[in-house]
Structures are given as structure tokens and as C-alpha cells.
Design goal:
The complex is a heterodimer.
Chain A (H helix, E strand, L loop, with lengths): L21 H5 L11 E9 L5 H11 L16 H4 L2 E7 L13 E7 L9 H8 L9 E10 L2 H4 L9 H8 L6 E5 L8 H14 L3 E3 L12 H19 L4 E5 L5 H13 L4 E5 L4 H13 L3 E5 L4 H4 L5 E2 L1 H11 L3 E3 L11 H12 L2 E2 L11 E2 L7 E5 L7 H8 L4 E3 L2 H4 L5 H20 L4 H15 L1 H10 L23
Parallel strand pairs in A: 4-10, 5-6, 5-15, 6-7, 7-8, 8-9, 9-11, 11-14, 14-15
Antiparallel strand pairs in A: 1-3, 1-4, 2-3, 12-13
Chain B lengths: L21 H13 L3 E7 L10 E2 L10 H14 L4 E8 L6 E9 L7 E7 L5 E7 L11
Antiparallel strand pairs in B: 1-2, 1-3, 3-4, 5-6
The chains are: A alpha/beta, B alpha+beta.
Chain lengths: ~500, ~140
């Protein structure tokens, strides 16, 4: 009997001792995934000389029912159902002998839905990214994508507000939102902090944002920040006749404290609060429930994600975080800029945006979307582009990122030579001029710089912004790139 | 007078640009029609940021596909309400949107007095804010 063949249920299968995972039923190349299965794609780098299919089976085993040895107590359960099944394992393109990269494998694994508690990201992740990442037999392991079945998706609330309702509440249609993060990140007093918020909003931004690490420090107690920011928001709203907001970061050491801060934000009339990814999946879900109950938009800053999402061979891809965060119920998530200072390959970023915004995503390998995903009417989550972007890139930003995005120009607003209001004016004029031109059918990718220069003839602040930042770009190689290049379809 | 950069209410997609010409408006109408969106015309003399329901100058023009015809309606609205705010709103009926997709102002009063902030001192340092439109102290139709 080949070592690849599963030993059938029965006495032989349950003899005490150690069996390869493949033989225990965790490798089933003939398995046809059910519509209700949760599907995962892992990138495996096996230790030298190990059979990749055995490793794939080990990942399936350790993320479901298996332990390192045979246990007779399996026979008290419907264990064949509960075993996750590795059903496909193939060499990753451009890895292995003859390439610069050691062999990696894409392992497809199916988990029965009954392995997971409804409505719990914590429970889902405890299996999928639990023990398996520490197994000695894998040199490196990365979770690349997941397919969440509709039935399981429906057990999650999803974004508290959603893009459509956020636009209706904010009265902003047909263009990206504009935002900025208050700078310096740390050190401003509440009074000085609110000044930045007021100037940026009055100048023309829709949102200003607390940074991820501004909570309640000696230089500024959180209540001071909230009070001064709401003065700024209301004053700017009156000065422009527009609905505006400031993401008040309620991140704190305990849930009790976060609820307290969120309640205070609500009592002051804030329309939006903010949390950091580092508070954890359960805390995020709790805040999403709170946000929906209180008509609050919920912004998520992805603090910490690059510790595990950036390297291509280990950790998890950001598209999986995007998927989980849409399920967990946040309304905004930072998802890359393409042209800014932070990591991002254009097609990979588009894959994240599609994951957050589409009602259905087909398989698109060039964007890193390995599974078809039906979003089952779940609200859309608004991607946020933040970090090293400025008005002079508006044509690129609009082309790459589209309308459903918050463009956050922090330094690009506050660092403007004529002041913060002028910085905001420059960004808003650049945006409106570019949207107008795109809608008129102009080729903004090529004509963009000229469109900006034309607007700068009548808009001094835009002129100054272009002069200040015209040479700024961040052209570094991405680390998280696609494995598949786009190919033209046969019919063309 | 309002003290923001342009001294005007900046709601809508294009309030930071010079007022749109009829040629520019026509191009935007074509963009909406190309996407299959229905175009409606709305007017108000209460531009409070949370005044969602401006008056409709007729129903959205679901079946009118000619931008020239829609521009004619915009100009009719301008003639009827020359001192009101008038906006063009495009709406998508596509599943997953089913909401406005464009909104831009095409007419506004010559003088825009704007809004004041009313601060009601509350417990502790809390303040309850009300944004008050100076124009709405007068009755509807007599404001601008």
C-alpha cells in the first residue's frame, strides 16, 4: 500500500502510534469542496526533503482535529467530517529548482463549517492561524486567501454603517473622501491639536484623524482631545455648510475604558470613532456592535499588520485581514496607497480594495484573489489610502483607487507652505478638478499633470503644493507582489 | 459672509471649482447617463448641512436620456428659483448601491450669509452644538 493512501476507518487506522497526516485522512486529492466549506490557501515552504503533500496534510490536520499521534477517541465522533482536507498542493510559479527562490507550494484546504462558532473571528482564526504556524516541519507558512461560505458570512454583522450609508450621512457623493491625520502624531496639547483639526476641515477636508498611537498620554488627556476636536468639527461645519468629522481614537487598555470613551464621543455629537487593529479581533467586533447601535461610523487603523503581512513567505496576506475586518464590522480600514510611502503593488492593492468593496469577487489570480467570494449583501467597507501622498498625485490616486476611498493627506495638508487651510484647499481643488475631468472623458492618467497645472493657474494654494512636492515619489520595490502576471484572454 | 476659502457653501462635488458652464454641466450629465443613472433636480433655501430633503423640481428623470433636455429642465429650475440653491443629483438603481452617485450645485444665491455655531454650555466642560443658518430666520421663499 502506497504511503499516500488514506487508511480506511477501522481497527488498523486507530492502532496506537504515529501515522503520517496523509494517511490519517487529511490529504484527499479527490475531495470536491462543498459550497458550505471554508476554504483556505496557504503558501508552504517545507523543510528540506519533506513531502509537500504531507506538510499540506499536516496543516489541515493541526488546524482541525489532529494531534501528533493517533487517538482512539476520534472514533467517538463523526471524525471524517471534522477533519480538514488538503485537496490540492501545487508548486508556486517561479519557485523551486532553477529559480532564485526555494520551492514553495500552494496548499488548498477545506474546513467544514461546523468546525467554527458562528459570528466569531476569534474562533475562526484560532484554528486557521493557530498552531500551524509554529510547526517544525514548515520552514515558513503564509495564509494567502480564504473563501468564506455565504452561510457562515451571514452569522457576522459586517460594517456597522457601510459605504453607502456613510455617503448618505455625510452627504458626499461621486468622489473620494478627503482626510488628513493630525501631525505631529504626539506631543500637541488638546487646544493646539484642535487647531489643526479646525484648519484642515475648514479648508475643505471631510475628515481629520487621530493617529494610531494617540490615546491618553501625559501631554493630552483623551477627554481634552475629544472636547477640543468637537469644537473644531462644529465650527468648521458651520464655516462651510458641510457635514464633517474627526475620527476620535477610543483605543484603550480595556473594553470598559473603550466603551466609556466611545460614549463620551457620542455625547459630544461625533459621527465617527476609531480603533486600532492591535486591540484584537473580539474587541473590534464588540466595538462594531456598539457602533451600529449608536449610529457611529467605525474607523480601523491597521496598526501592527505589517509585522505579519508584509513578507511574502510567512504570516498572512493583507487580503485575508481585509476579509476578516469586513466581517468583523469596521467601516474604514487602511488598505494602501500604491503611490505613497508604504508598501503596495498596484494589483495587490486593487485586490484588497475589491475584497472590501465588491458584492461579489471572482477568481483573479493577478490580484491575488484565489477564490470566488459572494459577499451575501454584507455592507461595504471603505478603504483608506494614507501615507506619503500629495495633491500632485491626484490623477494616479483616482486612477488606481477609484471613488470609494478616503484619501488622507496628512503631511500633504499640514506641511503646506501657506498653512493648513491652504493645504486642504489644494487637495480639494485637485480632487474636484480631476473628478470633473475624468467624468468629461479625459485621459487623466496622461493629462493629469496638465489638468493640475491648469487648476493651479486660478488656485494659488494648489500652485504652491505642486511646487513644493513635485519631485516627491516613493519608488521602491514591493515585497508583497503577485505570483501570476495578467494575461490577455484568448478571444482578444 | 462666510469666511472659508471661496466664501460659499461647499456642499457637492464641484463647489471648489469655478461655477460650471452649461457645456461642463452637459458633460457631467452624459457621464451619469452613460452609467444608467437617473438624474433629478433639487432646490432649497435651507442649505443646512443636514437638510437632506431639498425640494424636487419634478421626479427624477428616469426616462429622459437626452442631456440637452435635462439641461433645459435645469435652466427652467434656475429661472423659477434664481436665488435658491439648486443641485443635480444622479441616482443608481444597481444592487449594492441604490443611492445617489453624484451631487453638485449648479445655482446658488448671490449672497451666502452662512451659519453660526450656537453653543449650549452643559455639564462639566461639555458643550452641545447647534449649527444655525442665518437665512432660515426668515420664512421659506423670503430668505435670499
Amino acid at each position: 500500500m502506497s504511503k499516500n493512501v488514506t487508511i480506511k476507518e477501522g481497527k488498523e487506522r486507530y492502532q496506537a502510534g504515529v501515522l503520517p497526516y496523509k494517511k490519517m485522512g487529511y490529504w484527499q486529492p479527490d475531495y470536491v469542496p462543498k459550497d458550505t466549506d471554508i476554504l483556505s490557501l496557504f503558501r508552504l515552504t517545507p523543510q528540506a526533503g519533506l513531502d509537500p503533500e504531507e506538510i499540506a496534510a499536516a496543516v489541515a490536520g493541526e488546524s482541525s482535529t489532529a494531534t501528533w499521534t493517533v487517538v482512539w477517541t476520534d472514533r467517538l465522533t463523526a471524525c471524517e467530517l471534522y477533519r480538514a482536507k488538503a485537496y490540492k498542493c501545487e508548486l508556486v510559479p517561479n519557485t523551486g529548482p532553477g529559480t532564485k527562490t526555494e520551492a514553495q507550494y500552494f496548499a488548498y484546504i477545506a474546513h467544514d463549517m461546523d468546525l467554527f462558532e458562528p459570528g466569531s473571528i476569534a474562533n475562526l482564526t484560532a484554528s486557521i492561524i493557530g498552531n500551524v504556524f509554529g510547526m517544525k516541519a514548515v520552514k515558513a507558512l503564509r495564509l494567502e486567501d480564504m473563501r468564506i461560505p455565504v452561510a457562515y458570512l451571514k452569522t457576522f454583522q459586517g460594517p456597522a454603517t457601510g459605504v453607502i450609508v456613510e455617503r448618505e450621512r455625510m452627504d458626499k457623493f461621486g468622489r473620494p473622501f478627503l482626510g488628513a491625520t493630525t501631525k505631529p502624531k504626539l506631543g500637541l496639547s488638546g487646544r493646539n491639536y484642535g487647531r489643526v483639526v479646525y484648519e484642515a476641515l475648514k479648508g475643505g477636508l471631510d475628515f481629520v484623524k487621530d493617529d494610531e498611537n494617540i490615546n491618553s498620554q501625559p501631554f493630552m488627556h483623551w477627554r481634552d482631545r475629544f472636547l477640543y476636536c468637537m469644537e473644531a468639527v462644529n465650527k468648521a461645519s458651520a464655516a462651510t455648510g458641510e457635514v464633517k468629522g474627526h475620527y476620535l481614537n477610543v483605543t484603550a487598555g480595556t473594553m470598559e475604558e473603550m466603551y466609556k470613551r466611545a460614549e463620551f464621543a457620542k455625547s459630544l455629537g461625533s459621527i465617527i470613532i476609531m480603533i486600532d487593529l492591535v486591540i484584537g479581533y473580539t474587541a473590534i467586533q464588540s466595538m462594531a456592535v456598539w457602533a451600529r447601535q449608536h449610529d457611529m461610523i467605525l474607523h480601523l487603523h491597521r496598526a501592527g499588520n505589517s509585522t505579519y503581512s508584509r513578507q511574502k513567505n510567512h504570516g498572512m496576506n493583507f487580503r485575508v485581514i481585509s476579509k476578516w475586518m469586513r466581517m468583523a464590522g469596521v467601516d474604514h480600514i487602511h488598505a494602501g496607497t500604491v503611490v505613497g510611502k508604504l508598501e503596495g503593488d498596484p494589483l495587490m492593492i486593487r485586490g484588497f480594495y475589491d475584497t472590501l468593496l465588491d458584492i461579489h469577487t471572482p477568481v483573479q489570480l493577478e490580484k491575488g484573489l484565489f477564490f470566488e467570494q459572494d459577499w451575501a449583501s454584507m455592507n461595504k467597507c471603505l478603504p483608506v489610502a494614507s501615507g506619503g501622498i500629495h495633491a500632485g498625485q491626484m490623477h494616479q490616486l483616482l486612477t488606481y483607487l477609484g471613488d470609494d476611498v478616503v484619501l488622507q493627506f496628512g503631511g500633504g495638508t499640514i506641511g503646506h507652505p501657506q498653512g493648513i487651510q491652504a493645504g486642504a484647499v489644494a487637495n480639494r481643488v485637485a480632487l474636484e478638478a480631476m473628478v470633473l475631468a475624468r467624468n468629461e472623458g479625459r485621459d487623466i492618467w496622461n493629462e493629469g499633470p496638465q489638468i493640475l497645472l491648469d487648476a493651479a493657474k486660478w488656485c494659488g494654494p494648489l500652485r504652491a503644493a505642486i511646487d513644493t512636492w513635485k519631485d516627491i515619489s516613493f519608488n521602491y520595490e514591493s515585497t508583497d507582489t503577485g505570483d501570476f502576471v495578467p494575461v490577455a484572454t484568448g478571444s482578444n | 459672509m462666510m469666511t472659508n476659502h471661496n466664501g460659499i457653501v461647499t456642499q457637492g462635488q464641484f463647489s471648489f471649482l469655478p461655477p460650471l458652464t452649461d457645456v461642463q454641466i452637459t458633460a457631467q450629465l452624459k457621464y451619469a447617463l452613460k452609467h444608467g443613472w437617473a438624474i433629478g433636480i433639487e432646490y432649497t433655501d435651507d442649505p443646512h448641512p443636514r437638510n437632506t430633503y431639498w425640494e424636487m423640481f419634478g421626479n427624477p428623470m428616469f426616462d429622459l436620456k437626452d442631456p440637452a433636455g435635462i439641461l433645459l429642465e435645469i435652466n427652467n429650475c434656475r429661472k423659477t428659483f434664481p436665488h435658491h440653491y439648486i443641485r443635480v443629483v444622479a441616482s443608481s438603481a444597481v444592487r449594492g448601491v441604490e443611492s445617489p452617485t453624484m451631487s453638485y450645485i449648479v445655482n446658488r444665491p448671490k449672497k451666502e450669509p452662512g451659519f453660526g455655531v450656537v453653543r449650549q454650555e452643559s455639564d462639566g466642560r461639555n458643550i452641545r452644538y447647534t449649527i444655525h443658518s442665518y437665512a432660515t430666520d426668515k420664512p421659506e421663499g423670503e430668505r435670499y
